[in-house]
Design brief:
Strand content: 15-25%
Strand order of the largest sheet: 2-3-1-9-8-10
Number of helices: 27
Shape: globular
């Protein structure tokens, strides 16, 4: 696991190694154990290493036999031993025992198509000195990040945006359309970033840079086809468990201590259960609590059930409301506005886990491949809601629901029901888009200032959504939604969050549910085996019913969100009022203070739950202060 960066300069000047070193030093936390550089006239590549496999000889950059091919690599290749054997049989010789060297020799045999052979999480850069070609690549699902920019004949890349900013060649300029996307999704979807001229390489893509030309090619896509309609549930659960066990097993390869992030839900509990099958020692497990007993947010008792059943060596951390001390550090690690509040507990659980292990497994991704979110069930039920006569919906149901106050204990059911019924009888794509959007078009018109509105197209965020939702018109509703979330929310929110918060503490997180072979298999499972009746993740619950207790399998899904709604009304209230002030809002000039004041008042009074809108605004203001106002 590493951080990488580099420059390919076509201006005629040699790359300055001190610049590449500065770019790598900006992400030292991604690789505190070692550093290495390759310089060859107009190309300079560097890396920071977090040593996981081949601690002694795996120093990067790594080259082929005649030193014409060089690589800097971030991630893990789980099938590298199998690939090494094949390559040795074909005559390749190795000088390390690392997984990184595998890619160099695969490139010699397959060129740019070497990525098709890899099973892992990765981003890497290969320099082909014979062809004067730079190839950068990113893994299929987007577990590892990669950014690039082409400025004044210089192609610059890095594991994080701050690498490019540290090069000194880029002048910061906000992309206003991307900022609009942020206030839609809470993140900025690939390939855009908050900065004009800096791009994310999308998951499952490679980029070739040669002779002043950029070529981007998709090398992998999950396809919801060949759905097995004639197989029974037993066939699917058996096949799933076989692939899942293998996904966990290969992610246990490590030369350093390893553990699991345990939330107490079905996904992380399943990870711990299978890890226990393969481990001779107790699994190290890590859990976050909030110290608010009896509320929606207290899940420690469920983690305790798994700890007792599988005799793990458990560690627990209680997050207190004084999170204001870490908020700037959390925001800074994303480099651009990012407002999933789950970053807070992820920051703390990564910090705690790193005290004991260097690698941790996570249950991330199960919801997107198996249908685990409440909103999936809500959209399934929307067709029945539409059957209710309009006069009853609008004059009775919607009036009653919209008058309900927010839960004092943080339960988000009322908020979710309000969002659900307010989609009304819209077409499914519009209903789902409105449900996942932070602000609707009308609300944005009320929020954004006139000067800001002149720089954006409000419909643009919906176009990004539609590009995935309607990519395959033949798919059913659930498959369309799962595919869309896999390509947007999973990669640009959840995986981004996991990477940044874990790497901030030099912790590597591995995600078995996103093994690409398992993802491809789940795409062939009929939708009715993912959500059956009112049961979400039906196939997973059937698969694990002899492995996990029913109290875990059938408990309410709560996610990993901290009690921000409660904290904003209480302990964080002064911090909130100080940070989101009329003076600061008017100084930046992007928003209307009257609308923001209304949102604050409604939330703080308990009439509405607007914590997400408030958190997004808070994040942007702090990000703006750090990155724009320096």
């Amino acid at each position: 696991m590493c951080g990488i960066s580099g420059i390919y300069d076509l201006s005629g000047k040699s790359v300055d190694i001190s610049i590449v070193k500065r770019m790598c030093d900006a992400i030292k936390y991604r690789g505190p154990d070692d550093e290495g550089y390759y310089m060859n006239k107009y190309i300079g590549m560097g890396m920071r290493r977090l040593s996981i496999i081949d601690l002694q000889t795996g120093k990067q950059p790594i080259h082929n036999e005649d030193k014409t091919i060089w690589i800097v690599f971030n991630g893990e290749i789980y099938n590298f031993l199998e690939l090494r054997k094949r390559l040795e049989e074909k005559g390749h010789s190795f000088y390390t025992h690392s997984d990184t060297e595998i890619i160099v020799h695969l490139y010699e045999d397959f060129g740019e198509y070497c990525v098709n052979e890899l099973n892992g999480m990765f981003s890497f850069a290969i320099w082909d000195n014979n062809k004067k070609l730079l190839l950068i690549a990113r893994d299929r699902l987007g577990e590892k990040p990669l950014y690039y920019s082409y400025i004044n004949n210089k192609f610059i890349f890095g594991s994080e945006i701050k690498c490019i900013l540290q090069s000194g060649y880029y002048s910061k300029e906000i992309d206003y359309q991307s900022l609009d996307h942020f206030f839609t999704f809470l993140y900025i979807p690939a390939p855009n970033t908050i900065f004009k001229g800096i791009k994310k390489l999308p998951p499952g893509h490679i980029l070739l840079f040669q002779k002043d030309e950029i070529k981007i090619r998709k090398y992998w896509e999950v396809e919801y086809k060949n759905i097995e309609k004639n197989k029974d549930i037993g066939y699917f659960t058996e096949a799933f468990l076989h692939k899942f066990r293998e996904a966990v097993r290969i992610r246990l390869i490590s030369d350093v201590p390893l553990g699991a992030l345990l939330s107490g839900g079905i996904d992380s509990s399943a990870i711990v259960a299978i890890m226990s099958e393969f481990s001779t020692n107790p699994v190290e497990t890590f859990n976050i609590g909030y110290g608010i007993e009896g509320t929606y947010y207290d899940e420690r008792k469920y983690a305790k059930i798994i700890v007792d059943k599988f005799s793990t060596n458990h560690h627990e951390f209680i997050v207190k409301p004084n999170i204001s001390e870490v908020i700037p550090d959390v925001i800074k690690n994303f480099d651009e506005p990012f407002a999933d509040a789950s970053s807070i507990p992820n920051y703390y659980v990564s910090m705690m886990a790193r005290r004991y292990v260097t690698v941790a497994l996570s249950g991330l991704g199960a919801d997107e491949i198996a249908g685990g979110y409440e909103r999936y069930l809500g959209i399934q039920l929307l067709k029945y809601y539409k059957m209710i006569p309009k006069i009853i919906r609008e004059n009775i149901i919607e009036r009653i629901i919209n008058c309900l106050p927010d839960s004092k204990k943080g339960n988000r059911s009322i908020e979710r029901i309000k969002r659900f019924i307010n989609t009304g009888v819209l077409p499914i794509d519009e209903a789902y888009f409105n449900y996942i959007s932070l602000y609707t078009l009308k609300q944005k018109e009320e929020l954004f200032s006139e000067s800001f509105m002149r720089n954006i197209q409000l419909q643009n965020s919906k176009e990004i959504f539609d590009g995935y939702f309607f990519q395959n018109e033949k798919l059913g509703t659930l498959s369309k939604i799962l595919f869309t979330d896999l390509k947007t929310y999973l990669s640009d929110d959840l995986l981004t969050l996991t990477d940044r918060m874990s790497m901030a503490h030099s912790l590597e997180v591995r995600v078995p549910f996103l093994d690409y072979k398992l993802v491809e298999f789940m795409a062939t499972v009929p939708p009715e085996l993912k959500i059956k009746g009112f049961t979400k993740k039906y196939i997973l619950k059937e698969a694990f019913k002899t492995i996990l207790p029913s109290s875990i399998l059938y408990k309410e899904k709560k996610g990993f969100t901290p009690p921000m709604a409660i904290w904003f009304r209480n302990e964080l209230r002064p911090y909130l009022r100080t940070t989101i002030s009329k003076e600061r809002i008017q100084k930046i000039g992007f928003f209307k203070w009257d609308k923001i004041e209304e949102i604050l008042d409604l939330h703080l009074s308990g009439k509405e739950n607007y914590y997400t809108q408030i958190w997004a605004l808070l994040v942007f203001l702090i990000w703006y202060e750090i990155y724009i106002e320096d």
